């Protein structure tokens, strides 16, 4: 397994995803002799995992079963240990496309945070690109390096523990794209500009608050960035349900057999038309919106480094 | 100008009032009474001390469960003096708070006020001073919420009660979000003097909202399924008795016979025993617990006792049960009274039937757990031409069906299927953004206007212009 | 006809709505001898309108027909002459409920603008309430007075031509609610406070820009308003359509009769299950969202005048 | 590290390139050629002068249709000096502009630049100085847009082309909004080295986006209805020829026989004549004009001539017709070549069938005008276990059906039906707000993950936990 390459079977050292049921899963590091507790019982790595195909159903000791999934950046985002607020795949999707990332892209990122976006970037720019990611919190930077090695993408990423606002990204005129998720992005725009290639590139800043966006847009304009564009994306997930609505009792049986004209000469046949609905229930399938949903993650501001 | 129907001094909390307790964004409807314990947000207290104060007053719950009016000025005391620049040096080891749970409990037992406890927590936090100013604010807010027991007593209104129900018991109101209810009242042109038909199974919330907007002027005919209308939420509004004089109700099960001209009083359920017998009928909602069923109100007064059988609702709505009502319906129980009530009820029922038979209602509002199509097709018969109607449904598909059937049948124009999307904001200096969670589902509405349907049964009743392509017609609004 | 009272029949002097078809309509002032041109031909007021019932179908001179509707504040909002940007019924609904307006309420409004909200307020507070509306543009104030008279609600409204930020609403401790739709609402908060009743009341400010909201919220706090709450409401209208999607030709007829097991022993019966769908089209009714919709009108900030 | 597949100097506009013209938010894809007139936003011009400049350069269209690189510094000239406090004194009588249409035309004919014309309009406006500063800005912006003919030439990309198509020809891409496409690429885990199956009728836009993300590494099998795949949008990306070496296509009409094991080459349509014969088949989309059909690419090179028969598309996509392609496929027309091509095509078809038969694809992407259920149920057979799939549909109902059928059949988990909601903002000092118009419909997605389906035909393949109740599980995110 690797985060940039599918493998057929589970191997020692792999990070696999144990899928218990709808939106219930967790990652596991596969190790000879390792054991993992689930609510359905124990999974023994040597016998239950190693050598099995990804996508297999594994029966746990108590008889319940789980699926073992190949990791992807998207599954990782749902399962990674949170060291910070993280970016989710809905925002990540838009960031990746709007920064025009593709194999071979050189990208700068700050902060690394919990590595949610980093994994998605590395996936997209592999095998020939490179990610330079800067994290000012030392513990987090170290943990990120560790994870990238475990996930076999270490060769595609350079992690630096420094303050991007003071020290920048450590590269000059090399990057195709820069991503900022820091409290004061406006202080890093100059560094972002010098990290980007001479002929130009794209930048994205993610900020939860509109005041950060306002300052960042001003800084982008001052530094000569063009096509400044702020947007926001929200995911609305629908639950597929079978809905059954009772039909009201309007008294069809009781007195509707001998029907006369009603008082004011207006038509009364609609009683008959509604009679087309049987007493009982009306059933249908529906994709129903959730009662609660994520209403805001952050604003995404994109801009292009222009030539002049 | 006529006098307002409100009592003389509406601002003062009085015994017998219906009031709403508020803590942050959480509400609870209560009847104001002396010497009665109330549980709200895990706090026990009595309202005795609140009586005589003005609505809108904020109280602190002291030890012993009494309420003390809180002075606004005390507030700003908890100030932060020092803050870190960022959080790079903060390592969370779970040991940053020196006060133990026992310490805090001891403070509470000593009767120390919540505000003081928060201050002590700050002083005993080893990391507070290193936190950024923003993180400090967040910390204080969180602790305040936990340790300060502060409630505000407000007057009930559609705004308050619809927010309360949507937040705490959405299943009882078919997940009708408050902004959707707001749309219904406006698109239904609900106002003083109208003759409105209402069919709702939203615990009487929609009825209450309509009554509030009509202010006692005009008339309302409430259609009900089963043994009687449910008005638990209506009672929370605390309307004056006069508001109920022109409120009628009519059983859904008699709609067809009324429309066909075979309606007769003899077949009507007048015995109150029937109410319990048909209670099961009301439990047809899909993914919801059974709705509460109460006695049909036997008098058109405010005797709207909410016999609530669910502990969940009990926790939130501390509505008085029988005998506690604040209006002049204390006398009851004698057979003479019972007989008199039945007579009155019968008289009112005939009046309701007569009102419907005129077929000149000024609007129709439907918001129920039933499939709306049969309701709509029948009840629209009672509405005058050139009047609005509004149908709510939690799901979109039944309203698509209503749309299709109404277009086939004719007699309505300007059909519009819609949904609103509501977003709350946090507006704070340098930290403004939409709230991180939002409601994903407020329900769907179908609105339209009745017209004279000249060509019933013939095919040419469709509109000349195809109604389907919409949008784009509204011009792009100019930027300000 | 009146904007606060339904009438059965059309009369001289009425403002009626001529409904041509979906979202196509216009208002007409009914006058003896009056004529109105429509794309379906002429409507002659004396013969075609006066004395007819509201909701009637009226045949125009060219044979096409229209419906004549009783005016409501909502129809007026869709048909009024625009002298300014106007508020639409979606926002108006929320404003009305969140300001707790009802019969008897005393309300202050500024600016009057094109009167869209004013009509809705008057409808709700009639017959015993009163609207004090302030408009700093003289022409607009005069036109509003004229319209209120024509719509027979003049007795419920007082229009003042002045600058609300300088001169306030002209009433003290009388109002239950105040509504502001002006460029600098923060400058009018003090006046709003003194217009509201001593025991309290509600205020709403409508602003298109977030910076206006930020300043207004600060001003509200400074003036001691409580429960400050900013929100936004958008309407999503669905078009009901019959959709027909073609079913793909996967080659059922060509070689599917003699089917063997497929290569890797994995099940191939799903071919059969998809065969349950007939060649041709799948039809269904759907409420489809519009390609374009109004994405922003303004932010609504509500607050309560508190007691202290 | 391997070398990047991009050419050496990607920054320079060269003859034969595919480029995109941009004016404000409007795009147009063109092939860069000399001495060819292009119409864009009502302006005629040639691209000759752009060749040799760097992508991203902004040009002004001068009289005579030549392009002149625009110097950024000229910009800020149009400044406002005086502004009114509010608009109370402005009476709109339509007489505020003293320049007549004829005056303006005369200026243009004299070759006066747009910027100068705007300046003159301001000087001749009687009300400009009384407008508020904001209104002045608005005025200038409006006039600039009208009179300044400025275009930027940018390199094509998924971002640019998907925005362009959604803005101008959404019908051709089944109303797939660009952010929805972004979701598809991410949820499909599209990346270098994958073996992807694609079934799209989005003019080749989705295919192009996938090719861009795979960067020439791995393989793609495009399933197509009718006589051949449509790749008008794919060609606009200007991919190097190497990208097409591992792009395969396979006719949908042979999927069943491939699955049943009866697939044989003999029944395949190899004659290019068939392409036109089956063209009508492609025109089944609902509320859309017929999509363009082009020749199936007979060589796996970039010979993707867009034979576009619709004037509408012609206006926007100035793709070269046959013979103009920039790759080395100039030689054609001889019978020897034709034969050779047929052989190659046949070879590639066998390879495609073999790739599918391995049933180990790394993902499936569906975005078509067809009902997705039969496509999904069949094509998922070719996907390995533990791989993502993504299905796009313009409507929700067909995806609800897919969801239901997949749950019945088993072999997939983590099904999610979703829609994204995209909002653009205007961020300007003191005038920040969401854009006044937004897209109401970006389409719907169903995503999921394949697993080994052990229990086919038996009933116990359903998951242990009920998948239906969702939400609420994601914890409320902390406020920053």
TrEMBL record, chains A, C:
Heterotetramer; composed of two copies of TRMT6 and two copies of TRMT61A. GO terms for cellular component: nucleus; tRNA (m1A) methyltransferase complex. The lineage of its organism: Eukaryota, Metazoa, Chordata, Craniata, Vertebrata. InterPro entries: SAM-dependent_MTases_sf, TRM61_C, tRNA_MeTrfase_Gcd14. GO terms for biological process: mRNA processing; tRNA methylation. Gene3D superfamilies: 3.10.330.20, Vaccinia Virus protein VP39. The keyword Protein biosynthesis does not apply. Transmembrane segments: none annotated. It comes from the Eukaryota. Residues 251-290 are annotated as: Disordered. Catalytic subunit of tRNA (adenine-N(1)-)-methyltransferase, which catalyzes the formation of N(1)-methyladenine at position 58 (m1A58) in initiator methionyl-tRNA. Catalytic subunit of mRNA N(1)-methyltransferase complex, which mediates methylation of adenosine residues at the N(1) position of a small subset of mRNAs: N(1) methylation takes place in tRNA T-loop-like structures of mRNAs and is only present at low stoichiometries. GO terms for molecular function: mRNA (adenine-N1-)-methyltransferase activity; tRNA (adenine(58)-N1)-methyltransferase activity. SUPFAM superfamilies: S-adenosyl-L-methionine-dependent methyltransferases (SSF53335). Its EC number is 2.1.1.220. Pfam families: GCD14. Residues 64-305 form the tRNA (adenine(58)-N(1))-methyltransferase catalytic subunit TRM61 C-terminal domain. This is tRNA (adenine(58)-N(1))-methyltransferase catalytic subunit TRMT61A. Signal peptide: none annotated. It is an enzyme of class 2 (transferase). Residues 263-284 have a biased composition (Polar residues). Belongs to the class I-like SAM-binding methyltransferase superfamily. TRM61 family. Its main location: nucleus. It is found in: Nucleus. It catalyses: an adenosine in mRNA + S-adenosyl-L-methionine = an N(1)-methyladenosine in mRNA + S-adenosyl-L-homocysteine + H(+); adenosine(58) in tRNA + S-adenosyl-L-methionine = N(1)-methyladenosine(58) in tRNA + S-adenosyl-L-homocysteine + H(+). The gene is TRMT61A.
TrEMBL record, chains B, D:
Pfam families: Gcd10p. Residues 457-480 are annotated as: Disordered. One of its GO terms (biological process) is mRNA processing. Keywords: Nucleus, tRNA processing. It is found in: Nucleus. GO terms for cellular component: nucleus; tRNA (m1A) methyltransferase complex. InterPro entries: TRM6 (IPR017423). Belongs to the TRM6/GCD10 family. Heterotetramer. Substrate-binding subunit of tRNA (adenine-N1-)-methyltransferase, which catalyzes the formation of N1-methyladenine at position 58 (m1A58) in initiator methionyl-tRNA. This is tRNA (adenine(58)-N(1))-methyltransferase non-catalytic subunit TRM6. It comes from Podarcis muralis. The gene is TRMT6.
């Amino acid at each position: 397994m690797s985060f940039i390459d599918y493998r057929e079977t589970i191997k020692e050292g792999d990070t696999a995803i144990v899928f218990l049921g709808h939106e219930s899963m967790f990652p596991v590091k596969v190790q000879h002799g390792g054991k993992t507790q689930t609510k359905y019982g124990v999974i023994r790595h040597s016998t239950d995992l190693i050598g099995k195909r990804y996508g297999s159903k594994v029966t746990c000791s108590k008889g319940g079963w789980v699926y073992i999934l190949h990791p992807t950046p998207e599954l990782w985002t749902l399962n990674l240990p949170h060291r910070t607020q993280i970016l989710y795949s809905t925002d990540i999707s838009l960031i990746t496309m709007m920064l025009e990332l593709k194999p071979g892209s050189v990208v700068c990122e700050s902060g690394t945070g919990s590595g949610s976006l980093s994994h998605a970037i590395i996936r997209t720019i592999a095998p020939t690109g490179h990610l330079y990611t800067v994290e000012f919190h030392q513990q987090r930077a170290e943990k990120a390096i560790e994870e990238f090695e475990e996930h076999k993408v270490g060769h595609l990423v350079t992690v630096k523990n420094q303050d991007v606002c003071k020290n920048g990204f450590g590269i000059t005129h090399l990057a195709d794209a820069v991503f900022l998720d820091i409290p004061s992005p406006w202080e890093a725009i100059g560094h972002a500009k010098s990290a980007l290639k001479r002929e130009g590139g794209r930048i994205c800043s993610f900020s939860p608050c509109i005041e950060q966006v306002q300052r960042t847009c001003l800084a982008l304009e001052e530094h000569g960035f063009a096509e400044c564009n702020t947007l926001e994306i929200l995911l609305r997930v629908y639950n597929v349900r079978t809905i059954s609505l009772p039909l009201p009792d309007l008294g069809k049986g009781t007195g509707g057999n001998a029907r006369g004209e009603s008082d004011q000469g207006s038509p009364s046949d609609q009683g008959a038309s509604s009679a087309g609905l049987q007493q009982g229930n009306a059933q249908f399938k529906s994709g129903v919106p959730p009662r609660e949903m994520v209403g805001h993650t952050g604003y995404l501001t994109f801009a292009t480094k222009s030539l002049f | 100008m006529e006098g307002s129907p409100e009592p003389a001094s509406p601002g003062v909390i009085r015994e017998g009032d219906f009031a709403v307790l508020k803590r942050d964004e959480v509400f609870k409807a209560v009847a104001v009474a002396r010497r009665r314990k109330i549980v709200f947000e895990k706090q026990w207290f009595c309202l005795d001390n609140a009586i005589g104060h003005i609505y809108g007053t904020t109280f602190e719950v002291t030890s012993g469960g009494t309420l003390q009016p809180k002075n606004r000025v005390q507030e700003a005391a908890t100030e932060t003096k020092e803050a870190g620049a960022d959080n790079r040096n903060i390592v969370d080891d779970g040991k940053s708070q020196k006060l133990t749970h026992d310490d805090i409990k001891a403070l509470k037992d000593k009767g120390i006020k919540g505000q003081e406890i928060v201050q002590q927590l700050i002083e005993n936090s080893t990391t507070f001073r290193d936190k950024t100013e923003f993180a400090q604010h967040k910390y204080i807010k969180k602790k305040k919420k936990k340790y300060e027991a502060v409630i505000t007593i407000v007057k009930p209104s559609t705004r308050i009660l619809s927010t309360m129900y949507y937040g705490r018991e959405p299943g009882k109101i078919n997940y009708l979000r408050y902004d959707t209810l707001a749309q219904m009242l406006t698109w239904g042109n609900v106002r003083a003097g109208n003759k409105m038909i209402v069919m709702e199974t939203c615990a009487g919330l929609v009825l209450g909202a309509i009554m509030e907007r009509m202010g006692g002027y005009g008339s309302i005919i409430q259609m009900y399924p089963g043994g009687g209308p449910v008005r638990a939420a209506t009672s929370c509004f605390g309307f004056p008795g006069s508001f109920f004089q022109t409120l009628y109700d009519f059983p859904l099960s008699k709609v067809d016979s009324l429309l066909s001209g075979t309606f007769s009083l003899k077949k009507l359920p007048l015995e109150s025993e029937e109410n319990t017998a048909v209670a099961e009928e009301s439990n047809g909602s899909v993914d919801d617990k059974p709705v509460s069923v109460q006695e049909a109100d036997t008098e058109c007064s405010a005797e709207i006792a909410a016999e609530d059988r669910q502990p969940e609702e009990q926790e939130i709505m501390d509505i008085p049960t029988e005998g506690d009502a604040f209006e002049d319906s204390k006398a009851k129980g004698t057979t003479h009274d019972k007989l008199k009530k039945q007579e009155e009820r019968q008289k009112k029922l005939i009046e309701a039937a007569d009102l419907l038979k005129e077929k000149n209602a000024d609007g129709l509002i439907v918001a129920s757990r039933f499939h709306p199509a049969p309701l709509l097709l029948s009840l629209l018969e009672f509405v005058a031409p050139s009047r609005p109607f509004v149908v709510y449904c939690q799901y979109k598909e039944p309203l698509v069906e209503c749309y299709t059937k109404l277009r086939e049948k004719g007699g309505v124009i300007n059909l519009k299927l819609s949904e609103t999307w509501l977003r709350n904001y946090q507006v704070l200096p340098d930290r403004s953004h939409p709230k991180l969670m939002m409601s994903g589902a407020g329900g769907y509405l179908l609105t339209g206007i009745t017209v004279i349907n000249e060509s019933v049964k013939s095919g040419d009743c469709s509109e000349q212009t195809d109604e389907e392509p919409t949008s784009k017609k509204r011009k792009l609004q100019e930027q300000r």
